[in-house]
Design goal:
The protein is built from 26 helices and 14 strands. Helix 10 packs across helix 25 and helix 21 runs parallel beside helix 23. Helices cover about 65% and strands about 10% of the residues. The chain folds into 4 domains: about 190 residues, Multidrug efflux transporter AcrB transmembrane fold; about 120 residues, Alpha-Beta Plaits (2-Layer Sandwich); about 200 residues, Multidrug efflux transporter AcrB transmembrane fold (Up-down Bundle), CATH 1.20.1640; about 120 residues, Lrp/AsnC effector binding domain/regulation of amino acid metabolism (RAM) domain (Alpha-Beta Plaits). The strands form 4 sheets. Strands 2, 3, 4, 5 and 6 form a 5-stranded antiparallel sheet that branches. Strands 9, 10, 11, 12 and 13 form a 5-stranded antiparallel sheet that branches. The chain has a two-stranded parallel sheet with strand order 1-7. The radius of gyration is 32 Å and the shape is elongated. It has about 725 residues and is an alpha+beta fold. The protein starts with a helix and ends with a helix.
Length: about 725
């Protein structure tokens, strides 16, 4: 394979350029989905309720108008007139429409107060003709926002307005400024570690080609989630940089043996591909495990990033070698053997006498050989025992993290409409508004007395501030013929009865979950079938699904990676031990995050285990592989462990630092909490995994050295048997 790639290197570069141009054109055709409800499966109750409301009642996009000054009737009528005359508005339900605007507040019934008068303001519910995502609705929202800006005491907000603002403020670029800064820092780090100037730029160019092709080949998905669009670049660049580094270092070594650069590159390609295939496969499986999520965002995130890993692997053994060969002469001219910070004027203060004294003392301290005092073996055992003691505690903490299911986790932090909605909800003492839908085949046979009993019980539940139903227009004893038809249509249409609820607790909180369960318990007592619509119910379904998905994803990734490890090491015991080491790093990462951030987004909690497990188990694999190489040199166990730790530390640290740098910008600056959460966990997780592997793997190797050596011998015997059979 290596010889063919070297021979057709120019053709390979041309093909990748053409494929990238095509991918850029296709990329724009893939829709980025931002709505929370679109990630849920279609067969759950909250989605069914939304469909029923839309089909039966013609429910569409809605918003809230809030007038701070209850006495400023001139402003009220001016704004209401503009909104009702807008061609995309269905209704704007305010107190003037039901004939109570002129009635003093003290004489109003409680239902009217709850519906229209909140605190010291007036509530108006605005309903559009079409859905949230319709371009005409979005334009209408923009028109109303621009108009209401002229009135300081008028607030226009709600879920549809948040959706409009989300679309405008959402980062559509896959390469935000902070990611480009991270790439710049990564290039500087690679220049210093590789001691060359040109190759780091080629590494980035190589991965850029892989990323563009990856995003351009998502047409079969038709749409991807905003999370996939936001974080794929950081993941693909961070996880796949190792492949470029491995190829370059192998080529550098082969050039010393083979003066012909083409021969050296051909050998490098063949050997690099074999060595990184196993590690890329574990990473690929880790991301692929996310696709089994019930939530739809997991499928496209897993598919896109897993595909990106494979494309990065292909580019690293085809495109990158071709680029390196073309720029080989420039690479040689711009390489440098050593680098010293003291040569830079910025660090010239290190030459001062005072600093020299400090450095001299530090060097004297270094001369105290701790290994002689305690012995290297003893040091390994002490560290290993400490970590073994910590494992049960960290695992327990990792499984008992405080999880956040709040709606604002999936939205940019700077949404003005979200802030104003929260302010209004506090004034109105309202956390969320729900619609309960009951199937009623025959309206005239509907038992309104039974409904009244259910409503009476609901009103007694702490946290329910308002229940509004058809019985508020007329007592159940009043014949239906006495109720105006337009009032009936407010609550009953096409075989479904609607009940309006206001609750005190915000969506996604523990209190709202408990409250919903109490409400459902009451309705189950009276009705066999009912549906609830609203953000609280939506997040209630999210919570149920997330708990199942968390267990499913982590179990699947563990099983898949265990099978790969079993194939690589032929030992189920040692494969389990390796999984425990890396899973400990995952749990430690989650625990450290919870200490500083208090809560973790439920989406981040679901997928981080699989991502970190898949991408950082490579560190443990590299350590074991290198140990076996070192042990064969002199058969000295302790000496082999020393050399292994020394030689792998820089390689693993460089790999983990690349992943950290690729994600740190998103963690610090991305406006969407869930993107920030996941990026921070992945970047920090890479550093944590590096520390765990370098500190704990020496102990694992020391304790299980016989098993590892026997395992390697057994694997070689198996391979030799297959080789003989193939030859015969």
């Amino acid at each position: 394979m290596g010889k063919l790639i070297v021979k057709y290197r120019i053709i390979i570069i041309i093909l990748f350029i053409l494929l990238s141009i095509w991918s850029v054109k296709q990329w724009s055709k893939v829709t980025v989905v931002k709505e929370l409800a679109s990630f849920l499966p279609d067969d759950i109750d909250s989605i069914k309720a939304q469909k029923i409301l839309s089909e039966s009642f013609g429910s569409s996009a809605s918003a809230i108008l809030f007038f701070k000054n209850i006495n400023d009737k001139e402003t009220y009528f001016k704004v209401i007139k503009y909104i009702r005359n807008h061609p995309q508005i269905k209704t704007a339900l305010g107190p003037d429409q039901v004939g109570i605007f002129t009635v003093p507040e003290g004489f109003l019934p409680d239902v009217a107060k709850e519906l229209f008068y909140q605190g010291k303001g007036i509530f108006v519910t605005v309903e559009f003709l079409k859905q949230d995502n319709d371009p005409e609705t979005l334009n209408a929202i923009g028109d109303i926002i621009n108009y209401t800006k002229n009135f300081k005491d008028v607030i226009f907000t709600g879920s549809s307005v948040m959706n409009w603002e989300f679309r405008r403020s959402f980062r559509s670029s896959a390469f935000p400024w902070y990611f480009l800064v991270s790439i710049g820092i990564m290039i500087i780090m690679l220049i210093l570690t590789t001691k060359t100037v040109i190759p780091p730029f080629l590494f980035i160019l190589n991965l850029a080609f892989a990323y563009i092709i990856n995003m351009g080949t998502n047409g079969f998905l038709s749409s991807i989630s905003y999370l996939t669009n936001a974080i794929t670049a950081a993941l693909q660049f961070g996880v796949s940089m190792d492949y470029s580094l491995f190829l370059f270092h192998r080529y550098f070594e082969e050039k010393k043996i083979n003066p012909d650069k083409k021969t050296a590159m051909a050998i490098s390609i063949d050997r690099t591909f074999v060595s990184i295939l196993g590690s890329s496969l574990t990473t690929f499986i880790g991301f692929l495990a996310i696709t089994i999520m019930t939530l739809k965002l997991g499928f496209d995130l897993g598919i896109v990033v897993a595909k990106g890993v494979l494309l990065s692997l292909v580019c690293s053994v085809t495109l990158l070698p071709s680029l390196i060969l073309i720029f080989d002469k420039i690479i040689e001219k711009t390489s440098f053997e050593s680098f010293s910070f003291s040569k830079i004027s910025l660090f010239s203060f290190l030459k001062t006498r005072k600093i020299k004294k400090i450095i001299t003392k530090a060097n004297q301290i270094k001369k105290i050989n701790l290994r002689k005092k305690y012995g290297f073996r003893t040091l390994i055992i002490i560290i290993g025992i400490i970590i073994c003691i910590l494992i049960p505690f960290i695992f327990y903490q990792g499984f008992h993290l405080p999880i956040s299911y709040r709606l604002d986790d999936s939205m940019p932090k700077n949404l003005k409409s979200f802030e104003t909605l929260n302010d209004i909800m506090k004034i109105a003492k309202t956390g969320d508004i729900l619609n309960i839908v009951l199937p009623v085949p025959s309206f005239y046979n509907f038992n309104r007395f039974k409904l009244q009993k259910a409503i009476s019980e609901i009103k007694k539940i702490d946290g329910v501030s308002l229940v509004f139903s058809i019985n508020d227009y007329a007592h159940p004893s009043v014949p239906l013929s006495f109720i105006p038809y337009d009032q009936i249509e407010t609550f009953y249409k096409k075989g479904y009865m609607k009940i309006y609820l206001k609750i005190l607790y915000p969506p996604g909180t523990k209190e709202s979950v408990v409250l919903l369960e109490k409400i459902k318990k009451v309705f189950k007592k009276y009705y066999g079938e009912f549906y609830i619509s609203g953000q609280s119910e939506l997040l209630y379904d999210f919570i149920k699904i997330a708990k199942i998905d968390f267990a499913r994803i982590n179990l699947a990734s563990l099983i898949f990676i265990f099978i790969i490890l079993l194939f690589l090491f032929t030992s189920p015991v040692f494969s389990i031990i390796l999984l425990i080491v890396v899973e400990f790093a995952v749990m430690l990462n989650l625990y450290l995050y919870s200490i500083f951030a208090h809560e973790i987004s439920f989406i981040a909690n679901m997928i981080i285990g699989s991502i970190q497990l898949g991408s950082t188990i490579d560190y443990a694999l590299l350590y074991i592989t290198r140990f076996l190489e070192e042990y064969k040199k002199d058969k000295d166990l302790i000496s082999a462990i020393k050399r292994t730790s020394s030689s792998t530390a820089s390689t693993i640290f460089s790999a983990s630092l690349c992943l950290f740098l690729a994600t740190v910008g998103f963690n610090l600056f991305d406006p969407v909490n869930v993107v920030s959460n996941i990026s921070g966990l992945i970047g920090r997780g890479a550093i944590v995994s590096f520390l765990v592997v370098e500190l704990f793997m020496p102990f694992i190797v020391l304790v299980f050295s016989k098993l590892i050596i026997n395992m390697d011998n057994r694997k070689r015997r198996i391979y030799s048997i297959f080789s003989r059979n193939k030859a015969s």
